[in-house]
Design a protein that fits this description.
5-stranded antiparallel β-sheet, single chain, globular, alpha+beta, 12 strands
Length: about 170
């Protein structure tokens, strides 16, 4: 059996995941240690099978499964977590890595996050609980992008989901 490293990551709270996200294409993932980056893991999307799944590309939504199928596969203990595929489905995903350092060094992002969370935008901890994922209704007028610890996408991107919701109060913003 392949190692999952489940003990290092938050267990998904399936009942806390918003309905808007449960309607999207889903996959599972298994933590894969990155070479020469201790403590860092790849989280590639996998189509679940009873033999451990196979990698699927974010440009191939037909290979993804339903929320219930991903949930069931996760519960088989073959996988580390679950996630959604953003594919121009009117959901924008925002990924903020290294939260403590990022908010300390970027006052503008802290202010934006405070305002955004006060508007009931869904925000959750990343699987490692060192970053955040935000999901909101909308679309981008250009391709997604990454700038340092901040990423924003609405198409051809797999984002992990935990269901561990976060409030502005919890973040002390």
């Amino acid at each position: 059996m392949l190692p999952t490293f489940k003990e290092l990551f938050l267990e998904p709270k399936f009942d806390s995941i918003p309905d808007d996200l449960t309607q999207l294409p889903w996959a599972v993932w298994r933590a894969e240690p990155r070479e020469n980056q201790e403590g860092k893991f790849n989280k590639a999307p996998l189509k679940p099978t009873n033999k451990g799944g196979y990698k699927v590309g974010a440009n191939n939504p037909s290979q993804f499964v339903t929320f219930d199928q991903a949930k069931s596969a996760y519960q088989s203990d073959l996988y580390t977590g679950v996630g959604v595929l953003l594919s121009k489905n009117e959901i924008v995903g925002i990924d903020i890595d290294d939260l403590d350092e990022t908010l300390t060094t970027n006052n503008q992002l802290s202010a934006w996050l405070q305002e955004t969370l006060s508007n009931d935008v869904y925000c959750e901890w990343s699987p490692s609980k060192t970053g955040l994922r935000l999901f909101l209704r909308g679309s981008l007028n250009q391709a997604g992008r990454k700038s340092g610890p901040l990423e924003i996408y609405d198409d051809k991107r797999f984002l992990t989901v935990t269901g561990h919701q976060v409030s502005a109060k919890e973040l002390s913003l």
